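Record type: monomer structure entry
Structure origin: computed from sequence
Chain ID: A
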Amino acid sequence: MSSHPDVLILGGGVIGLTCAYFLARDGVHVEVVDKGDFGQEASWAGAGILVPGSISHARSPGELLHAHGVGMFPALSAELRERTGIDNGYLRCGGLEIVRPGEPVTREWRGEGVACELLDDKALERKEPLLAAKGTVYLLPEMAQIRNPRHLKALLAACAASRVSMRSGCPVHGFERAGGRVASVRSGDETLIAGKYLVAAGAWTEGLLGSLGLRLGIHPVRGQIALLNTRTPRIRHVVMLGKRYMVQRPDGRLLVGSTEENAGFDKSTTAGAIGDLLQFACSLLPLSDATLERCWAGLRPGSPDGLPYLGPVSGLTNLFVAAGHFRSGIQMSPATGLLMKELLLGQPTTLPLEPFRLDR
């Protein structure tokens, strides 16, 4: 094996680690570097909601990528558990979407090919007797959840078992070019060399590519979350209302999220945002006895048109990007890992990459 990796991945979140695992599974020598600890940014911070989708009914490239990614999760979760012994918490718990009176329906689930049932008050009470939902409620029986930290732990273990080299605390400061190729990247006083390079640095992607004069418009969007401990579960389903949600874990933890804030790279939590989230949760469930265990924020990588960038960098034959997944990084990660593996190895891609090109 060469001392230099075939592929060097810049960014060790769920996108970078999934790409690394899929490449290494095909015998590729991969190294992943991250400026901090692996998977501790947006990937760790999310709630792990897997919103169902239908490949045959997808009406846009984003819906198609999402549907493929979510559809791969049961098999990927089982594979990771078999290879590492780590259960990522995949659970098909179902979901409820609440539409308040006078508010527009945000998704036409049946038109998207997703199993959906309109619940009347009695049916809702049977499903969730403690939930005080005012408005129209849709049951989505195929909705699932994973526990993000456990999924990242499983990916890290699977990468290690596949001989992926992993270096945390290794910030990259720029690229060295040689003709139409990247010759190396700089990390402090060190030079890192590989055959191909994949930038999967989430909200930090823009800064890395800026040294090449490439501006994609990827930017951080802060999302704050509160974690409550209800001791025993109060709900069984994921509950969604607009952009907010509650996710009950089997151990009694209840995640309440999330905000969308343009706050730059500030990961602070604020009293106003957390207070609003707690008020939202308490308006739907009896939670006066629940303890507030922790609050945190993550920085999602937003893109100008809401689609991620997946593909090669024009003018550099060995540099690629997989970033800008916004709120869908976990959900799209299996399909992204598959597509980037296929692209880097010159294989036919499962989905067309044209809609995700960098120069769209």
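Annotation 1: Residues 7-87+148-216+305-356 form a domain with the FAD/NAD(P)-binding domain fold (CATH 3.50.50.60).
Annotation 2: The CA atoms of residues 62 and 140 lie 20 Å apart.
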